[in-house]
Amino acid sequence: MLTILAALLTGGAGLAGWLYVRSLENGVDRVDAFQGLQEEQRPVRAADSALNFLVLGKDLSAPGDSVSRTDTIMLVHVPHSRDRAQLISIPRDTWTTIPRSSPEDGGRPAKAKINAAYAWGGTPLLVRTIEQFTGVRVDHVVVVDFAGFGKVIDVLGGVDVVVDKPFRPQFVRGPVLQPGVHHMDSALALDYARQRKQFADGDFSRMRHQQAIVAAVMREAGRKGVLTNPGQLDDFLRATAGAVQVDQGMSVFDTVWGLRQIRPDDITMLTSPTTGVGTVGDQSVIFPDLPASAKLFAAVRNDKMDDWLRENPAAVNGN
Fold first, then answer.
1. Which residues belong to any copy of the Cell envelope-related transcriptional attenuator domain (predicted)?
2. By Cβ atoms counted within 10 A, which residue in 116, 156, 178, 290 is the most buried?
């Protein structure tokens, strides 16, 4: 969804562009993200004019895997002004309470990694878990398929990614990449977005790198002016539409139109506060910093992120 937004906003979409997006509406797959959620179980909307999107990344964690995983969890907040956004990554190993466990475990609430919610109850249970964890009402859900996202990168002819520390590719041939800007095709970019074990801070590096890939795609879409090339625009939008699913109530056209003022530089990248990595039994987990998280998500809930960012400038991830 962010890449659709980038394509239409960087360069000024005309009537033909908007009509084309409307024509893609029926081509975007839908997911029943809110099935079974009871109103009394959900947070109230503290700021009706703001929007909060839950963005999930589905992936086969490595070539040859047969299990699809939801390893990427991002909460995207758009304030009432609709001229900027904050993208908050939530570590998949965050230790929290899942409202319902697997049927084999009795279906009762259970402490687990936040990602377990998807395995136990699909997108609806993950939405409920995120809402319980953050206290933020989720308005819409976007599920991104990493393999499909690779096609978007290829349509752009690759992207320039800011590498923050030495990276040794695992699934493609190539030298160790030193810190700096590197041009990546889809295979290398997705390799970079997947890796965590070779970095000292593990999943935190992976989240930063995923954010860097998103930022790179948005910058490249703007730099190349895809709207000026009808063939490239068609390929780009069709690849993007094929890489995402959205909730049943979300209008792609209305959403893109409503966020038309946002440019790539207007998106701030953040990570949900934590106290670090630890173990529970035989599991490696990430413990949330509950007081700091409460302040961050209260700012999201009340549409006060400008105030929070002024008080916490070091929390911004550079991309």
1. 69-221
2. 156
Helix (H) / strand (E) element for 2: namely helix 2-9
Q: Name the more confident of 258 and 183.
A: 183
User: For strand 180-184 and strand 68-78, is the pairing parallel, antiparallel, or unpaired?
Assistant: unpaired
Contact criterion met (CB below 8 Å) for 117 and 78: no
- List, in order, residues 6 or more apart from 257 with CB less than 8 Å away: 18
Strands 244-247, 29-31: pairing is parallel
Domains and CATH numbers, the chain: 2-315 (3.40.630.190)
The token duo for 135 is 């206290």
Q: What would the DSSP string read from start to end of 12-29?
A: T--HHHHHHHHHHGGGSE
Q: What secondary structure letter does DSSP report for 46? A: S
CB burial of residue 309 (10 Å; 0-12, 13-18, 19+): middle
Q: What is the rounded CA–CA span in Å between residue 51 and residue 215?
A: 20
Which is more confident, 67 or 78?
78
Rounded Cα–Cα distance for residues 12 and 125 (Å): 38
Task: Tell me if 51 sits within 8 A of 262, measured CB to CB.
Answer: no
Q: How far apart are CA 6 and CA 219, in angstroms?
A: 8
Tokens of 245: 């699913």
pLDDT for 58-69, tens place per residue? 875 444 444 456
* Pair 232, 273: CB distance under 8 Å: no
Query: pLDDT digits over 246-285, tens only?
Result: 999 998 778 877 777 787 788 899 999 999 999 999 999 9
Report phi then psi at 299, rounded to 5: -65, -40
- Kindly state the helix (H) or strand (E) to which residue 254 belongs, with its residue range: helix 252-258
